[in-house]
Design brief:
Layout (H helix, E strand, L loop, with lengths): L2 H6 L2 E7 L3 E8 L4 E8 L11 E2 L1 H19 L6 E8 L5 E3 L9 E2 L7 H10 L1 H9 L8 H11 L1 H6 L2 E3 L1 H10 L3 E3 H4 L5 E2 L4 E2 L1 H7 L8 E3 L4 E2 L4 H7 L7 E6 H8 L7 E6 L3 E7 L11 E4 L5 E7 L3 H11 L1 H9 L4 H9 L10 E3 L17 E3 L7 H27 L4 E5 L6 H11 L2 E5 L4 H13 L9 H4 L2 E5 L3 H20 L1 H16 L4
Parallel strand pairs: 1-5, 5-14, 9-12, 15-21, 21-22
Antiparallel strand pairs: 1-2, 2-3, 4-7, 6-8, 10-11, 13-14, 15-16, 16-18, 17-18, 19-20, 22-23
This protein binds adenosine-5'-diphosphate.
Adenosine-5'-diphosphate binds next to helix 12 and helix 14.
């Protein structure tokens, strides 16, 4: 690092474009978060299988968010080394030649292409495409969304100049350049992991040509040349370098310092994920795990779950409502109150199991029709058992994904945990006992933004190696396995798994019933 530059340009700005909000951070060169700002935007669900956003609301949040955090911390334009990006994966927007959106931003949660995913999987071609692209065959994937457009909106396919994701939209508006980093490209289902280029067969299925997609660039690629108006809105110089960066998932691994063999990152926010870094692309013979790029040297293998912290929120809002109300009356966070109640019950909830598959599930089952189940209820079970069983259910899901990961990566030596769930010491210990591995929790919770800032330093040539993360990331609390709880969970795992498999057909039947019922007028 040049000393002169480090005094002249002491700050890195990270912009983390998420599904619920964009978070912007000012980070010092020694990894301290000096200020942050968060701007939320809505997710529109005009039909049960749609989940869309307004690309311009997100673009405005990025510009305004950077401006706000720069002002908050009092950063001068010439003090910024670079702005580096993290972004949610799998989004798709069709734009015309003037970068005017022809569609909404279709998010990972949009399910309109579910039938296409099921069909492609059945055909066997799905597994072949997955094994080259690393993106599981699922309606989240832009490949499947494009197949849906191909058949349902043929006119749009002709009118569209480019099909892009939300971060490409931001860069196109700011710099008039269509660039996609290898990381987000590897989550489109269209990108060949071996030759780092668009996959001809996947593009053929999607019905698009390479010139309808953005230019592929490394995650460390930089772009400069802001207009005076945007530079002033963000409080930056016109020549401030913008680093394209990577996806929020792979950057979270970097931001918790989990990028060495044997270190597994588990995140549980609203949803959740289990991930590990490898040094070359690796896919799963069973097609259950993703493989996404971080840089050309590091790849992230893992699995996402839909039903993470959202399950606890559902328990708080729908089941333990009186208890949550009591907590509020006492001025206690309802989540803390409910975990305290759950802690009064032994591990295994006295034989009550909960399959937390409320919104269908991605890894490891990849079954959109899966639903929640309480199993083993008896008259002796109380509300606190139901709370504990729900918290344990989320951990059974995490454990199932961790087991899939172990199949191809070998056992985890240590787990790095992050996300909202980590606020609870009780829930963290439950994870430790369920996985049978020590769990540590990094001090900072902004893992994707920190990962983006580290990648920014690498892109600017200020560090040689991402191992620099070790100088940045302080590991806080550590949890050790309680062997007797571990044995209880081991015993229950086989019952949990077998309940899921035995109910597979019934999940399809009940989902079909729910579909009909929701459509029919109330009698
Ligand atoms: P997001 O995915 O929006 O970034 P967060 O990472 O903030 O979400 O996680 C939110 C989830 O964290 C909540 O739904 C809840 O399940 C969990 N959570 C938040 N606070 C607590 C707490 N004090 N104890 C246990 N769980 C908590």
């Amino acid at each position: 690092m040049t000393d002169q530059l480090s005094t002249l340009k002491p700050y890195i700005i990270a912009a983390d474009i998420g599904t619920t909000s964009t978070k912007t951070l000012v980070i010092s060169r020694d990894g301290k978060v000096l200020g942050s700002h968060s701007i939320e935007y809505p997710l529109f669900t005009p039909a049960a299988d749609r989940a869309e956003q307004d690309p311009d609301q997100i673009f405005d949040a990025v510009v305004q968010g950077i401006g706000e955090v720069v002002r908050k911390v009092g950063v001068k334009p010439e003090q910024v080394l670079c702005v580096s990006f993290s972004s949610a994966m799998h989004s798709l927007i069709a734009v015309d030649k003037n970068t005017m959106p022809l569609t909404a931003c279709i998010t990972w949660a949009d399910n309109r292409s579910a039938m296409y995913a099921a069909e492609l999987k059945r055909s066997g071609l799905g597994q072949q495409i997955y094994s080259r692209t690393g993106t599981p065959i699922h309606p989240m994937s832009p490949l499947l969304k494009l197949m849906w457009f191909r058949d349902n909106e043929p006119g749009l396919m002709k009118e569209t100049y480019k099909f892009i994701g939300i971060k490409e939209y931001v860069f196109a508006k700011l710099f008039d350049r269509y660039v996609i980093d290898h990381s987000l490209a590897s989550a489109t289902g269209l990108f060949n992991l071996e030759n780092l280029d668009w996959d001809a067969e996947a593009l053929g299925q999607a019905g698009v040509t390479p010139d309808q997609l953005s230019e592929l660039v490394p995650t460390t690629y930089r772009v400069e040349g802001l207009s005076a108006a945007y530079a002033s809105a963000m409080g930056l110089a016109k020549d401030t370098p913008f680093i394209v960066g990577a996806s929020d998932g792979v950057l979270a691994n970097l931001g918790v310092g989990a990028f060495e063999p044997g270190v597994v990152a588990v995140t549980i926010g609203t949803s959740g994920a289990v991930r590990s870094v490898v040094t070359k692309p690796q896919t799963d013979p069973e097609g259950k795990l993703f493989c996404y790029a971080l840089t050309e040297k590091f790849w992230v293998v893992g699995g996402p779950i839909n039903n993470g912290g959202i399950v606890f929120r559902w328990v708080r809002d729908q089941i333990a409502t009186a208890e949550a109300e009591e907590a509020r009356r006492q001025g206690i966070d309802p989540y803390d109150y409910l975990t305290e109640l759950a802690s009064q019950v032994k591990a295994g909830s006295d034989g009550l199991l909960f399959l937390p598959l409320l919104s269908g599930e991605r890894a490891p089952y990849w079954n959109a029709n899966a639903r929640g189940v309480y199993f083993g209820l008896s008259l002796s079970h109380e509300k606190k058992h139901m709370i504990r069983a729900a918290l344990e259910g989320v951990m059974f899901s995490i454990q199932a994904v961790a087991t899939s990961l172990e199949r191809i990566m070998g056992p985890a030596e240590v787990i790095r945990a992050s996300g909202g769930f980590a606020r609870s010491e009780f829930w963290r210990q439950m994870m430790t006992d369920m996985l049978g591995t020590s769990v540590t929790v990094p001090d900072s919770i902004e893992s994707s933004g920190i990962g983006a800032a580290l990648l920014g330093l690498l892109a600017m040539g200020e560090i040689d190696d991402l191992a620099h993360a070790h100088n940045w990331i302080q590991v806080g609390t550590a949890h050790e396995v309680n062997e007797s709880n571990y044995r209880v969970y081991q015993q229950l795992t086989s019952i949990y798994t077998s309940v899921y498999h035995q109910l597979k057909d019934q999940f399809d039947a009940i989902t079909a019933f729910q579909g009909q019922h929701l459509r029919s007028p109330q009698s």
